[in-house]
Structures are given as C-alpha cells and as structure tokens.
Design brief:
Its cofactor is Zn(2+). The protein is 42% helix and 17% strand. A hairpin with a 5-residue loop joins strand 8 and strand 9. The protein binds adenosine-5'-triphosphate and magnesium ion (3 copies).
C-alpha cells in the first residue's frame, strides 16, 4: 500500500515543515511536570506552559507525532475499545501548533490542503463542525474553502455523552482550552451512524479525524476563563483513523500496523477470525502497555501503575476467553517493535524491560485468573436481576486480583452490570476492618507485589491471607 502509517507520519511532518514548522519529538506518556494529568492525552500536553506564557520556545510553529493514552482522567476511552471502529487506549496524534503566530485562517486552509490536495481525500466526503458562536470559522469554511452550509454543523458544549460532539476542547478540568472546529469523514451509507450533532452521531459512519482548537483561555479551578497571553492554534489528528481512510478500510484495526499485531495475536491464540473482538482488544492493549512501560510505568496497585495493571489484566482475560492458558501477551512485543520501533527508538531500546515486566504480571495473574473466572461464571448463573452484587465484585477484586472495571467488562459482555456502590461499600468496610485490626501499624494492606514476592513455600494462598484478616489489594 502507498499510504502506510509510516508514510502518513512522514507526509504530515513534511507538509508542516514546508509551512515553516519546527518538528519536535513525541513527549513520553507520563507528563513531565503536570500533576493535574495522569497521562499525555493529546499533542498539546507538552506545550501547556507555552500556551500559558510561562515557557518560551525558540519557535512559534511546531508539528509532531505524539503518542497518547486515553485510559484515565478526563479523557478515557478504555470502555470503547473493541466496541467502536475508532477508539484506542493508545494512539498516535498528528499535530501542528501556532504559539501566538498564525490563527484560524491558516490552520483551516492548511488542514484542507493536506487532506484534499496532498492525500487526495474526496472533498464531498468531508464535513466540519464549528463552535456554535464561532462565525469566523463558519465563514472561513464556507467562503474561503467553499463548503456548502449543509456540511458545516454548529455545535455547542458537550452535555455529558461520552463521545458526543463537543466543540469546546479542554485538556483537563483546568488549563488551556478554547473553541474548536473538527473535520469528519463519511465512510458511506452502508455503515450505521449519523452526522455530528444528530442523535445517532455515536455510530461509526461519520468519523472525526481532525480537531483544530483555537486556544484562547486558561480554565481556572473555579471554572472561570482567563484569556491566554496570545491566541494559539492546537490541532490533533488520529493517525490510525486517517490510515483507515487512506488504506480504504473502515476500522482502525484493519490498517497495516494493527493487522500485523492482530495476525500475531491470532497465531498465539489460535483464533483464526481476524475480526474477532478479543484480538482487537489485545492488539490495542499491547501498544498501551508496552509504551507505558517504556515511559517508566510498572504494574502496581495505585495511580498510573494500577491503570497499567488493569489494561494488562483485561488483555490477559481476552486471551483466556480465546482458550489460551499459557503466557502469550509479551510475545507480541517483537511484532510491535517491528511495526513501531523505527518511529519510536525508545521502544526497541527497552524491549527487554517491557517483555520482562509483562511476563511477570502475566505469571502473577495466571495464579488467580482461572479460579476468578469460575467464580464469575457461578455467580452469573445464580444472579437473576442481571446485577453482580458488590460483595462478589469485591471478592473477585480482593482475592482474585480482578480490578472492578475488569469484572464490569465481563459483566457487560453478558448483558449484566456490577453494583458499583455495593463494591465501594465492601471496599470501605474492608478498610475500616483493616484499620481496626491495626495489624500492620494501622490500615497497611499487604500488596499483591509483596505477596507475589514471597517464596513459594511461604505463600499461604490468598484465601488463607484473607482468613487471617489480611487483605490483598488488586
Ligand atoms: P471522539 O469524539 O471520536 O471520541 P475526540 O473528540 O475525543 O474524538 P479529540 O480530543 O478532539 O478527540 O482528539 C483529536 C483527534 O484524535 C480526534 O479527532 C481523533 O482523530 C483522534 N482520537 C481521539 N481519541 C482517540 C482514540 N481514543 N483513539 C484513536 N484516535 C483518537
Ligand atoms: Mg473522545
Ligand atoms: Mg469528538
Ligand atoms: Mg474532538
């Protein structure tokens, strides 16, 4: 194929270089100096202080390919993976920026030029949204580009739907933000879904490919908007979504890079249907997990490490569903290195660490995954109202290392839910019991790490630890 993902990355950077942009490297997934943010969820994160005027760079135009993770915090797409054609936990965002330099006119003109002239997308397949009060962007699309009014949709603020259109972009609850204009691609009538702003916009027919944000404010903790020192442009385009269009496929999982991972996962699991949902989830999760480890995160029971553990365990459970009872997940790493090592040299450099960390987690979870699944199956057979009781979800969490979102995900596949309030109550009860018992100087729980690090002879089993009033977190 002409438009490999590598080619698209290169084309993008070349285009913006020709428009006077400095090419900068991707920042890590763990933001360097931003405690308000769990992960780098978009290209602008590494430029946050530049927008705020607190940091100066030697350039006023920049472009890059940023690795992103949306699996926690304000942007969380974990529960969409495997359910939509277009959402990943880990993805690559192509971005261009103006720091007080060009504004709406140039940003809009260049995005159109790149999509329709350089990459040759059919203009009639594209439609755009603008912030409902942003007449300037509306006019630029209508008069300068020549888009007819029926393909320019005015959109306001998202009132809560998980991926409903929202034309006021925010990195987090505080920080740089502003109105945006987004470009959508129509994959065709044969796919279910309506245009942005319509009741069935969550479908996969009209897929959002590029967001152009006009950064103008710094959102304060009390919600007020303080104008930035200078208006800026911040754009983000999903590499995988664009590759799907240019490679004439519909879902991101059909692009070259994902197909390589899926074929390997198919080989490792014996699942021959390459459109199988579990293969897709596994292919998604190996990217997220590997890059998290590359960027210094290791599986643990709190914060970023717990997000990583949750994603790994979800992937392992999908392998289990396909009948795999041997370690398989870390065996995908060489394929990932083949696919992405050139674009991200830090990946091959740390591949051994990634493999070892994944293997260790896989061995650890193997001790309880099988019995946990049996417990779940028994429960599911008993439950009559479709709701897994909180105490049981807690037992799966506490004794079998099933993060509650994993249990909820298994339940969802069977048309069931988990009583989350009940789960929280059990959790709270256990904290109190542990505090009262004070065995380890007041409420210190025994971590799964510690348990796993005990010599096999000293390992009493999770049940026994429980009986002793000790708890295993995760
Ligand atoms: P969506 O509405 O489809 O969830 P978004 O509005 O949340 O996307 P933005 O925050 O505007 O996305 O990010 C800019 C671009 O990054 C999007 O236009 C899309 O191409 C890409 N993108 C966003 N989220 C994901 C994801 N989870 N997986 C892959 N690409 C994504
Ligand atoms: Mg989204
Ligand atoms: Mg959107
Ligand atoms: Mg968007």
């Amino acid at each position: 194929a002409k438009f490999t993902t590598s080619q698209i990355r290169a084309d993008f950077l070349e285009f913006f270089k020709s428009k006077g942009h400095t090419i900068v490297p991707s920042a890590p997934l763990v933001p360097g100096n931003d405690p308000t943010l769990l992960f780098t969820n978009s290209g602008m994160v590494q430029f946050k202080d530049v927008f705020l005027g607190a940091e100066k760079r030697s350039y006023v135009r920049a472009a890059d390919v940023q690795r992103c993770l949306r699996a926690g915090g304000k942007h969380n797409d974990l529960d969409s993976v495997g359910y939509t054609a277009r959402h990943h936990t880990f993805f690559e965002m192509l971005g261009n920026w103006s720091f007080g330099d060009y504004f709406k006119k140039e940003a809009i003109a260049w995005s159109w030029e790149l999509l329709t002239k350089v990459w040759g997308l059919a203009p009639e397949r594209l439609l755009v949204t603008v912030y409902h009060t942003d007449d300037e962007s509306y006019e630029l699309w209508n008069k300068m580009i020549g888009l007819p009014p029926e393909r320019i949709v005015r959109i306001g603020d998202n009132k809560g739907a998980p991926y409903a259109s929202d034309n006021f972009w925010q990195m987090a609850d505080t920080g740089p933000c502003g109105p945006c204009t987004e470009i959508f691609y129509d994959h065709g009538e044969h796919i279910a879904g309506g245009p942005p702003g319509s009741p069935d916009e969550d479908g996969d027919r009209y897929i959002e490919i590029w967001n152009n944000v006009f950064m103008q404010f710094d959102r304060q903790p009390d919600g007020t908007l303080v104008p930035l020192p200078a208006p800026c442009v911040d754009t983000g385009m999903g590499l995988e979504r664009l590759a799907a269009i240019l490679q004439h496929v519909h879902t991101n999982y059909e692009i070259d890079l994902f197909q390589a991972l899926i074929r390997k996962a198919s080989e490792l699991t014996g699942m021959a249907d390459l459109e199988n949902k579990s293969l897709r989830v596994i292919a998604d999760h190996i990217r997220a997990c590997s890059f998290l480890i590359v960027d210094g995160v290791l599986p643990s029971n709190e914060g970023r490490g717990y997000v990583l553990r949750r994603i790994i365990r979800r992937a392992l459970r999908h392998g289990w569903m396909l009948g795999v009872r041997q370690p398989f997940f870390s065996k995908l790493v060489p394929t990932l290195v083949e696919q992405m090592g050139e674009a991200y040299p830090e990946l091959p450099a740390q591949a051994d660490t990634v493999v070892r960390a994944l293997q260790a987690e896989e061995e650890r979870f193997a001790e309880t995954l099988d019995s946990g699944m049996k417990i779940f199956d028994d429960l599911a057979a008993k439950v009559t109202d479709g709701v897994i009781p909180g105490v049981d979800a807690f037992r799966l969490y506490d004794t079998y290392g099933f993060p509650v979102d994993l249990t909820a995900d298994i339940a969802r596949e069977r048309g069931m839910t988990v009583d989350m309030e009940g789960f929280e109550a059990s959790m709270e009860h256990q904290r109190e019991t542990a505090r009262a018992a004070g065995k380890f100087g007041g409420g210190v729980t025994l971590s799964a790490e510690l348990v796993a690090s005990l010599e096999p002879t000293a390992f009493l089993g999770y049940e026994r630890l429980q009986a002793d009033g000790l708890s295993v977190v995760a």
